[in-house]
Amino acid sequence: MLPEPVTILIVDDDRGGREALEALLLTQGYNLILASNGPEALQKLEEAPIDLIMLDLMMPGMDGYEVCRRIRNNPAVADIPILILTAMNDFRSRLAGIEVGADDYITKPYDSMELFARVRTVSRLNRYRRLVSERLKFQQLFELSPNGQLVIDSNGVVQLINKKLLQMVNIGAPDEIVGSALAGWITPDRQAEFKTQLDNFWKDPETICHHETWLAGKNKMIQPVEMVLGQIEFNNNIMVQVILIDIRERMQLSGALAKERTLLKALMDTFPDFVFCKDLDARFLMVNPALAQFFGISSPEEAIGKTDFDYYPKELAVRYLSDEQHLLNTGRPILDQEEAMVDSKGVWHWVSTLKAPLHNRSGELIGIIGIGRDITRQKNATIELNDVQIELEASRRKIAELKQSVSDLDRERIDYLSYLGNELDRLGKEIIEGLRFLDQANEAQHTSALLVQQTAMQLASLAQDIVTYSTLVKQATPIETTRFSLLNCIHSAEQQVRERALQKGLSIGLSLDPELPEFASGDGKGFGQVLVRLLDNAVRSSESGVVSLRVEMENYSVSVPNEAFYIHASVSDTGPGIAKESMVNLFKPFQMPVRGVIINGDSGLSLAICKQLVELSGGRIWAESNAIPGVGCTFHFNFRFQAA
């Protein structure tokens, strides 16, 4: 490849001098630019790259000394060599020129051989200096690049690589890759593609080619990269500079984005609410399957480009359009607006709608996004709940009348019924007030409200257990934590139930773990109450045989003071057992009957109270039953204590 010719700027106020130099230098193939004064010379320097300046010292206005001084003070052109042209042959003038920055001088009249030699020497040195400077800059950029870089020849053979590429292919020395074909460092399935890209590049070397491929390093190290091919002059030859950009993070982000898009599509496909986007002309850009079904179309794509006028009566479509135009003009979203809508079958629905402006990444308004939720069932449920509130209010009035009717009873009963009536009255008011806060209701809530009405007359007989149960439900910690005799507590519970057991011809079998400590610290009253309630439940359920109580330690040492431990207690009866389907709700309040027969005196809260007491201690309660007559049921619970 031939080097570009040297460009020389000739600055001389004497036209004859300029033309004489021009005639001589053109014979040597130089590019020449002429200037007749200092300011013109400085302007020419800004317009074109100059390799050498030939400057006359004695010029009117801005002389050669000042021109030389200004050039050396301008970093953009300070390194251009300057050859002084002077008719003066005295030493002082030449020295003054050298002092202001000139590199060499030549005196008039010119000796052609001397002129050519000096120009050739100075320009060659300047070219070499520039080449070295550019080579150093290139090497610094090449080595410090955060991307892998290499230079390959027209055959794809590697000539130069940087340190980053060594890391990318997991090799220690450049010799392992320099001199080899770059294609060999690409995975086999992508090598043909690379060769095609390289062939296309050589067809038009002025272009820059981009494509993604996989780099294959040592020890089966594979890395995705973006490969950029561009032309470069290296060692006086046109070669290919290859930049390899690590795109692992980009691919991970792309994969994550694709996954998010898949999840979003799955969400939109299964989302029960209506979702849509419209452009500024109120045409649908997107609807989800739920809204497409509401429109009576087979796929969401059918709605694209259409408007509300295609799916709703005109009066509704006009109203929707007016609301959306106001939204676009003001930028204020529409929040929870209840609208009447009719589906493709002519059925009217109540829909709660949210609409908001839709902007692109640049913040430009491009349309509207909206979500609609069908609230028809909630609307209907609200009406039904209002009816329930009226009925509950009537029940409250009946309770008040009942309280008034007991005025002839003795003071103790009056006080008791007054208290109970006040409590029931309070509960009725709280229920009614609570229902007023429900602005929506589902079918389960509606059913629960009806149950409250149906069971209102049973509240009097359940008052005591209700009070106990509600107190426990509100309790965050055990009711009372004291040091007590664990053995006395167990025997006391057994004694409280023994008489009722003997009346039914039953016996109580008591089995105690010899490792049980005599004293413990905890909710002794709660523990005793659970034992009494479970034993009482077992006696009521059994008709014959033995009711068994077994109390034992969990696998835990109680030798350390204040160390927590658990007691495991179990109560077994010989009753009819509990059906499997009843076990799920066994410890919920008001779950009766649970054994196929009603147990007299059972409030339906006893097991729920046991559960509350046990869980307040930090334990748990459960039951086992095969629902086989005569086999009965066994209730287990763990109760938490501390060593006393």
Helix content: 40-55%
Backbone CA Rg: 49 Å
Discrete helix count: 17
Morphology = elongated
Distance between the termini: 100 Å
The biggest beta sheet reads: 7 strands, mixed
Q: What does the average pLDDT come to?
A: 82
Strand composition percent: 15-25%
- Please mark out the parts with pLDDT under 50 across 5 or more consecutive residues, or reply none: 406-421, 596-601
Structural class: alpha+beta
Number of strands: 22
Summarize the structure.
The protein is an alpha+beta fold. The chain has 17 helices and 22 strands. Residues 406-421 and 596-601 have low confidence and may be disordered.
Describe the structure.
- With 644 residues, the protein is an alpha+beta fold.
- It has helices at residues 15-26, 38-47, 64-72, 91-99, 112-144, 163-168, 188-203, 248-270, 289-295, 314-330, 376-404, 411-436, 443-454, 463-474, 486-503, 524-541, 606-617, and strands spanning 7-11, 31-35, 52-56, 82-86, 104-107, 148-152, 158-161, 209-216, 222-234, 237-246, 274-279, 284-287, 334-342, 348-359, 365-374, 482-485, 507-512, 519-522, 546-553, 564-572, 621-625, 633-643.
- Helix 2 packs parallel to helix 3 (64-72) and helix 11 packs antiparallel against helix 12 (411-436).
- The longest helix has 33 residues, at 112-144.
- The model is unreliable at 406-421 and 596-601 (pLDDT under 50).
List the helices and strands and how they pair.
Blueprint lengths: L6 E5 L3 H12 L4 E5 L2 H10 L4 E5 L7 H9 L9 E5 L4 H9 L4 E4 L4 H33 L3 E5 L5 E4 L1 H6 L19 H16 L5 E8 L5 E13 L2 E10 L1 H23 L3 E6 L4 E4 L1 H7 L18 H17 L3 E9 L5 E12 L5 E10 L1 H29 L6 H26 L6 H12 L8 H12 L7 E4 H18 L3 E6 L6 E4 L1 H18 L4 E8 L10 E9 L33 H12 L3 E5 L7 E11 L1
Parallel strand pairs: 1-2, 1-3, 3-4, 4-5, 17-19
Antiparallel strand pairs: 6-7, 6-10, 8-9, 9-10, 11-12, 11-15, 13-14, 14-15, 16-18, 18-22, 19-20, 20-22, 21-22
